[in-house]
């Protein structure tokens, strides 16, 4: 059991899918938008998902039309989606939206987001902030903690074994989004750092 929900994005091989599910990840994120790097096809996603159980299946999208996202939600059996852009019309499932760090630091912007997203995401939403540094100053930590108290805030990016517990204690996010990787060759993958993060979060 992990102390906090963890999702893993960029799943594109069976090694990652089985390992992350076995380590207690709550969900696996598959890049289904063909315009994004390392995207997988719905067919490949279905094959990989067929080998795991007990995890949520999510799709990641950028500028795909909402109608296409909703179609893939049905086709792939997605429970949630991770979006890089704010959609123009409501989605059929709960969504995680990537936003700028600066937006979550601004108190006025936080209130605007909370109000705007309620109508765009009727099935529920969370906000994803991608950290580009393993060190956050105190002011940024406090601002993120205030955002996390306002709506579900997920942290992604520079999450390491050395800072994950500090972020957990100071920000108290809804969860962490880690990144998968490529196999060295079929069936062979180095999980050293990913394993260290999972182990740090074990109860």
Automatic annotation (TrEMBL):
InterPro entries: Aldolase_TIM, RibuloseP-bd_barrel. It comes from the Bacteria. This is Phosphoribosylanthranilate isomerase. It comes from Hymenobacter defluvii. The lineage of its organism: Bacteria, Pseudomonadati, Bacteroidota, Cytophagia, Cytophagales.
């Amino acid at each position: 059991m992990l102390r906090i929900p963890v999702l893993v994005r960029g799943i594109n091989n069976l090694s990652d899918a089985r390992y992350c599910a076995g380590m207690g990840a709550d969900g696996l994120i598959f890049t289904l938008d063909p315009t994004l790097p390392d995207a997988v096809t719905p067919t490949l996603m279905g094959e990989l998902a067929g080998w795991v159980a007990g995890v949520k299946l999510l799709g990641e999208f950028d500028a795909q039309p909402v109608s296409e996202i909703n179609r893939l939600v049905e086709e792939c059996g997605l429970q949630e989606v991770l979006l890089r852009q704010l959609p123009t019309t409501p989605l059929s499932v709960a969504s995680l939206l990537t936003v700028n760090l600066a937006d979550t630091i601004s108190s006025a912007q936080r209130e605007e987001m909370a109000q705007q997203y309620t109508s765009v995401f009727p099935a529920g939403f969370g906000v994803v902030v991608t950290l580009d540094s393993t060190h956050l100053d105190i002011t940024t930590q406090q601002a993120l903690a205030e955002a996390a108290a306002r709506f579900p805030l997920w942290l992604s990016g520079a999450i390491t074994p050395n800072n994950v517990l500090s972020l957990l204690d100071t920000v108290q996010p809804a969860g962490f989004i880690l990144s998968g990787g490529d196999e060295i060759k079929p069936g062979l993958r180095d999980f050293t750092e990913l394993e260290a993060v999972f182990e740090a979060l074990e109860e």
